[in-house]
UniProtKB/TrEMBL annotation:
PANTHER family: EG:22E5.9 PROTEIN (PTHR21324:SF2), FASTING-INDUCIBLE INTEGRAL MEMBRANE PROTEIN TM6P1-RELATED (PTHR21324)
Keyword vocabulary terms for this entry: Membrane, Transmembrane, Transmembrane helix
Annotated GO CC locations: endomembrane system
Protein name listed in UniProt: CWH43-like N-terminal domain-containing protein
Entry similarity comment: Belongs to the DRAM/TMEM150 family.
Keyword Transferase: no
Length: 254
């Protein structure tokens, strides 16, 4: 009996949803941020929700990275089966690199909030978003070689469009709104502070992007549902301790 790999992205997505709602509810209850369309990053600025933000976020980053890496490794077997060209395997290698960069950026993003070092926080966020989008687009390109259902590549295409739109809205309107802001409290914006609607549009873009990232785990779980890791089993074949031998069945995908 083995371990089903699709459990990992399911747990990853569940942690992300629970973490977001927990931090959002706690932050709004304590009055640390606006309850209407706040930035994701502004949710984890103050204690105690900043601790939850770091714990949930780091755990999600680790599991999401493992999920995407396992997906790449498993898809190699599928590509070998259908006789895909070398370019497909090169794309897998590039996607693995983007997975590692995205995961490390996510950990940095959740470890340093915008109040401590906004430049680093924003840089980690942009790096994470861009390399996640690269991985998503790469998986969409590989669908032409993988024998998947039509709804899988359509879902990936929809998530890609949502991610691109979200990233564009987030970056552009945040850039436009910053010079217009004249208020004193960045986390409780008012219409008269300037740039209010631009900030709200940027926040919508960030929520779209984060929603697409979390939803991507569901597609990974569907793709990995046929892959299982068989744990090594040890058998003693001789009662003579000096001459005993063991047979170890190695780990593999089934």
């Amino acid at each position: 009996m083995g371990f089903r790999l699709n459990i990992i992205p399911l747990i990853s997505g569940g942690i992300a949803v629970c973490g977001l709602f927990s931090v959002y509810e706690l932050s709004c209850t304590l009055g640390h941020t606006d309850s209407l369309w706040p930035y994701i990053s502004s949710l984890g600025v103050y204690a105690p929700e900043s601790c939850l933000f770091t714990w949930f976020g780091s755990l999600y980053a680790i599991l999401a990275t493992i999920s995407q890496w396992l997906w790449c490794s498993c898809m190699v077997h599928s590509l070998l089966t259908v006789g895909a060209p070398v370019s497909a395997f090169l794309l897998i290698v590039f996607m693995k690199i983007s997975t590692v960069v995205c995961g490390l950026s996510l950990i940095g993003l959740f470890s340093i909030n915008m109040e401590e070092a906004n430049f680093l926080h924003y840089g980690f966020g942009m790096t994470c978003f861009v390399f996640y989008l690269i991985h998503l687009a790469g998986s969409l390109c590989l669908q032409r070689y993988l024998q998947s259902s039509d709804w899988l590549w359509i879902s990936r295409a929809v998530l890609t469009v949502i991610s691109i739109c979200g990233l564009t809205l987030f970056v552009y309107f945040n850039y436009v709104a910053l010079p217009l802001f004249t208020g004193e409290d960045y986390y409780h914006r008012r219409v008269e502070d300037g740039g209010y609607y631009e900030f709200m549009t940027s926040a919508v873009g960030e929520w779209l992007l984060v929603t697409a990232m979390v939803s991507y785990n569901a597609l990974l779980a569907v793709d990995l549902q046929g892959f299982v890791i068989d744990f090594p089993t040890v058998y003693q074949t001789s009662s003579n301790m000096e001459l005993s031998s063991v047979e170890i069945r190695s780990m593999g995908f089934a």
